[in-house]
Structure to design on (268 residues):
């Protein structure tokens, strides 16, 4: 009896320890975004809202965030379009070397990031392409592409071909069937792939550092440079804002899904 009671306490204790371990850095980041610090943000100096109200007054913070958003949006758009087309081709069409293409798409995911970053930097140098936004975006598209293909491919494999056949039986042109049947059904997978791609691009440091040189400062590079003299509280503000935005998106998607499920249940 006592043994069963002890076993019943182990899982809750493990869950609490895991949550504390995972959430402590986030709680620290949010708490120190309100720290009334002037230079170093390592020690608590008092509560203030100035860091949130004047986040762009600190030189370089908002410019770095803007660069990260620009690179993330452009890389995500390119990788999502290319990755979706590749995923559909790999699932729906048989062609020579399809297995090798699928295998090759996993290589960027399995390759250590520093190896890929140095290889791309050497390649850009050899072809005479100067470091900047172009090289960073090309590099980000390359490593985001694999994640998009894998995510969208899983969604394509679940589609029922009978739905598209029904559209063609109703004299729908190939483009109309794609726009009105295939694309809407693929949209949840495409949206998930795009969000994952943007998160990877926004958060990347190693590949950006190797291929951007001194020309571009993204938010992760700004944090790295600032860490030598103390990360400013404004960086905590940006990190907290991104965290709350991600939570808001997840909640909106969950609530929307629950409302749709309830409406479908009423119809049935």
């Amino acid at each position: 009896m006592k043994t069963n009671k002890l076993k019943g306490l182990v899982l809750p204790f493990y869950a609490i320890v895991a949550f504390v371990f995972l959430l402590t850095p986030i709680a620290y980041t949010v708490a120190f975004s309100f720290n009334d610090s002037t230079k170093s943000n390592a020690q608590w100096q008092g509560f203030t809202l100035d860091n949130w109200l004047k986040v762009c007054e600190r030189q370089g913070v908002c410019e770095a965030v803007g660069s990260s958003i620009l690179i993330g949006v452009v890389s995500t758009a390119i990788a999502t379009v290319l990755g979706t087309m590749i995923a559909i081709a790999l699932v729906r069409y048989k062609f020579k070397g399809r297995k090798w293409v699928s295998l090759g798409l996993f290589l960027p995911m399995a390759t250590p990031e520093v190896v890929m970053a140095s290889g791309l930097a050497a390649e850009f140098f050899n072809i005479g392409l100067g470091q900047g936004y172009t090289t960073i975006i090309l590099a980000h598209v390359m490593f985001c592409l694999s994640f998009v293909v894998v995510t969208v491919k899983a969604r394509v494999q679940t589609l029922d071909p009978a739905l598209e056949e029904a559209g063609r039986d109703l004299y729908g042109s190939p483009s109309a069937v794609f726009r009105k049947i295939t694309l809407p059904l693929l949209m949840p997978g495409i949206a998930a792939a795009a969000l994952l791609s943007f998160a990877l691009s926004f958060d990347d440091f190693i590949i950006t550092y190797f291929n951007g040189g001194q020309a571009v400062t993204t938010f992760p590079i700004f944090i790295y440079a600032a860490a030598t003299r103390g990360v400013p509280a404004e960086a905590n503000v940006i990190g907290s804002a991104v965290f709350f935005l991600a939570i808001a998106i997840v909640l909106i998607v969950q609530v929307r899904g629950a409302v749709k499920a309830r409406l479908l249940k009423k119809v049935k």
Observations:
- The chain has eleven helices and no strands.
- The mean pLDDT is 87.
- The two ends are 47 Å apart (CA to CA).
